[in-house]
Design brief:
The complex is a heterodimer of chains A (171) and B (191). By secondary structure, chain A is of the alpha/beta class. Chain A has four helices and seven strands. Chain B has a single domain, classed as Rossmann fold (3-Layer(aba) Sandwich), CATH 3.40.50.12280. In chain B, strands 2-1-3-4-5 form a five-stranded parallel beta sheet. The longest helix of chain B is centred in the last third of the chain and has 16 residues. The radius of gyration of chain B is 17 Å and the shape is globular. Classes of the chains: A alpha/beta (171), B alpha/beta (191). At the A-B interface, helix 4 of A face helix 4 and helix 8 of B.
């Protein structure tokens, strides 16, 4: 990783953990309040592509983890293999009781469908998102289906298995 | 032409013509799309069996559902099936339409497609080889000969039951019933 970027990050943002697990893969563990500032800073430093926004349900710790993966559109090396490419993974934890976070559309416009997806599948609300409407699902679910306490097997037995076969004896 | 079939051709020319010119609409819901291009193009050449892909459901009489069926896809499948003209035949391709396959406990995947539309034949496997489509087509010929490929007749007769199942899975459907309760086609007021 670019040493200069690392130093800058550590000096500007207090209690931001920077771990380089392997070459080119850097994990930043940020506090909830500083995520937007970190993302904006990284965008100014050339990491202008939000490759993925995802979420993890840590049910035992009663927290959701949001994961932003940033990379560059233009590579810094001439190597086409992608080995020298920098991937920055920004992680943050939010509480599970009140799952709310701020939208990042103002920084990365392509976060819009990702946030809609997370809202639909995890039930995390994004403040300032212009349209949190259903994206993939047709049915209503009592618990958003990607949460760990959603019992898929019970749901299937309750809903799809109860639909009867169409046989001649039903006439 | 097979000499034994001459009698059949004179007896029921329409049925024989139907049987040997299946116009297929491929509903590529999932991974089965990978198998379809080699089947319809030069590598396996489905036209040897009289199967040719068409662009729209209104030109088709064979409906091939390749892959898992999510709730959203089911809606599109029902609409596609209802637009096809009779006689129409449906074949479920792969394990997932049969009984859910690896999606047997998924929150959003339909198990047992034959609860919602009638299916004339299944091709099991994950994924079936492209040759399996031809095996299914030859089986379908036999079924058409014996008048056992009668899914569209069953759909007409049990339409209220199929419609009930569709509404159980999808909620209120936004299009009117295709058939009236006595089994006649509704006067078409749809677009």
């Amino acid at each position: 990783m670019n040493e200069l970027l690392k130093k800058e990050l550590e000096s500007i943002f207090k209690d931001l953990q920077v771990n380089e697990s392997q070459a080119g893969r850097v994990t930043l563990i940020a506090k909830r309040g500083q995520v937007l500032a970190v993302l904006r800073f990284l965008k100014d430093r050339g990491l202008d592509h939000l490759a993925l926004l995802s979420a993890v349900d840590w049910i035992e710790e009663k927290e959701f983890e949001l994961i932003y993966i940033l990379t560059r559109y233009i590579q810094d090396t001439d190597d086409d293999s992608g080995d020298g490419r920098l991937h920055l993974i920004v992680k943050t934890r939010i509480s599970r009781e009140n799952p709310k976070f701020e939208t990042t559309i103002s920084i990365f416009p392509n976060a819009e469908p990702y946030e809609r997806e997370i809202y639909e599948l995890f039930g995390i609300d994004f403040d300032g998102h212009p349209r949190l409407t259903p994206l993939f699902l047709e049915r209503k679910y009592a618990i958003p289906p990607f949460r760990k306490d959603f019992d898929t097997r019970e749901y299937v037995q309750e809903v799809f298995d109860k639909i009867p076969f169409v046989g001649d004896k039903d006439k | 032409m097979d000499r034994n079939q001459i009698r059949k051709w004179f007896k029921e020319p329409a049925k024989m013509a139907n049987k040997y010119s299946l116009h297929a609409i491929y509903f590529c819901t999932g991974c089965g799309i990978i198998e379809v291009p080699p089947v319809i193009t030069s590598r396996w050449d489905a036209e040897r069996f009289g199967v040719i892909p068409v662009a729209t459901p209104r030109q088709a009489n064979l409906f091939l559902i390749t892959g898992y069926v999510s709730v959203k896809t089911l809606k599109a499948i029902i609409r596609t099936y209802e637009q096809m003209y009779e006689p129409k035949f449906t074949v479920g391709f792969g394990s997932c339409p049969v009984n859910g396959g690896m999606y047997w406990d998924s929150y959003n995947t339909i198990k047992h497609l034959d609860k919602y539309i009638p299916i004339d034949g299944w091709i099991a496997g994950c994924m079936p080889r492209p040759e399996a489509i031809f095996v299914a087509v030859t089986h379908l010929w036999t079924l058409i000969d014996k008048e056992m490929a009668n899914g569209y007749v069953r759909y007409r007769e049990n339409y209220n039951l199929y419609r009930r199942n569709q509404e159980m899975a999808l909620g209120k459907l936004e299009w009117p019933p295709l058939y009236s309760p006595d089994g006649n086609r509704e006067e078409d007021t749809r677009e």
